[in-house]
Amino acid sequence: SGGLITLDRGFKNTGSCESAITFLNGEQGILRYRGYSIEDLAENASFLEVAYLLIFGELPSQQELDKFHQDIKDESYVDEEMKKILDGFPRSAHPMGVVSSLTSALIAFNPSSVDVSSEEDMYKSIVKILAKFPVLCAWALRKRTGQPLDYGDSSLGYVENILKMMFKKANEDYKINPVVASALNKLLILHADHEQNCSASTVRIVGSSHAGLFVSISAGVAALWGPLHGGANQAVIEMLEGIKEDGGDSKKYMQKAKDKEDPFRLMGFGHRVYKNFDPRAKIIKKSADEVLGDLGIEDPVLDIAKGLEKEALEDDYFVKRKLYPNVDFYSGIIYRALGIPTEMFTVMFALGRLPGWIAQWREMRLMKEPIGRPRQIYTGENHRPYVDIDERH
Ligand code: SDX
């Protein structure tokens, strides 16, 4: 249109949409889903209840929740042919790559979900992905551990079912540990949405071309994988393990993080919006103490994390830049205590963020948002004539 283009790298000061789903206040460290505080929801709600709230805008009645869960249970299978795709991966494949690929492959077995425009068809796609995505995530883990692939147990709750699909051993019954189930429920709630973060914006922009929900979610998984985003929860544990191996000397790592020549960053610290403590990190830190205590687990990495946090909060490089622990800093310590391997941490983040991605996609489609297509500031060559190859040097 030739109008004035303002450059805003990383969209630091650009609003991409109007949204009624999640409210963040970065200065005060406030996070609310549809007006409910994250503290209230993490303490009192079930993850499926929060998924319903984020997607449809209201806390469900018992009857609405039961119907929602039943509709999901009815879709909690994946076409057996999908296992052939999984077979094609090496056992060493990173689970995020496996899950992103399998999620877009779902389209081949659910062609009616290619593009949906009616609310009724959207609902069908939504319950399908909420049902099938956890199966694919559990399959990605069991591929790595060489265990048989399993489906859910429809007698269980949504979160308990995820645990059973992930951990049930072939020849044993699986007993749900309420401490583990409650810890995972809380973690998934805390990860459920975060307004226009990198992966949610990715889901929105892919969905804005009407590419359909499954491939939009697959794109969200790909964006989340990056260590600057959801991949940080795996990178944090690798960093903390490194500090432990190194004799527990956090100062050396903090020095590296300050060195502009060194690409190393203090993983799990800093945030585009929060310039205060990430409210989720506060809850997860407290929950880490409780869960490890209840499970009788001593993890020296937790003490290293607390020591690193203390030092960073007293260091003017980090204080000046308002770098606080974010959601990824303590979450891996709980995942590990729940028996989840490090390579699966970001898959757990994706399982939690799935309802948020769905809610953002649905709102974008219902509001008939235009296709996302930003402009640029051109800095390339001016017009120049073609030169024959034998005249080039
Ligand atoms: C998530 O957006 C979301 O909401 C994401 C998320 C969600 O729920 O969806 O909250 C989940 O992704 C949490 C963030 C996980 N990532 C990490 O923990 C990786 C480490 N963090 C950084 O890479 C960084 O803090 C980001 C990516 C989180 C934010 O990057 P920004 O906003 O682009 O900030 P920046 O890179 O411009 O940094 C500002 C300054 C720079 O120093 P100066 O150039 O001003 O001197 O702070 C420094 C940076 O070098 N800095 C860090 C740092 N983070 C920023 N220095 C050392 N260690 C860090 N972690």
What does this structure look like?
The chain has 393 residues and is mostly helical. The protein has 17 helices and 3 strands. The protein starts with 21 loop residues before the first strand and ends in a 27-residue tail after the last helix. The mean pLDDT is 95. The chain binds s-citryldethia Coenzyme A. The site of s-citryldethia Coenzyme A (SDX) has 23 residues, from loops.
Proportion of helical residues = 40-55%
> Quaternary status of these chains?
single chain
H/E order of the elements?
EEEHHHHHHHHHHHHHHHHH
Secondary-structure content class: mainly alpha
The profile of the biggest β sheet is:
3 strands, antiparallel
Bound molecules: s-citryldethia Coenzyme A
Radius of gyration: 22 Å
Q: Count helical runs.
A: 17
Low-confidence stretches: none
β-sheet strand percentage? under 5%
Largest beta sheet: strand ordering: 1-2-3
Gross geometry: globular
Average of pLDDT: 95
Give the total of beta strands. Answer: 3
Which structural traits does this protein have?
single chain, 393 residues, mainly alpha, 3% strand, globular, binds s-citryldethia Coenzyme A, citrate synthase activity, Citrate_synthase_sf, tricarboxylic acid cycle, acyltransferase
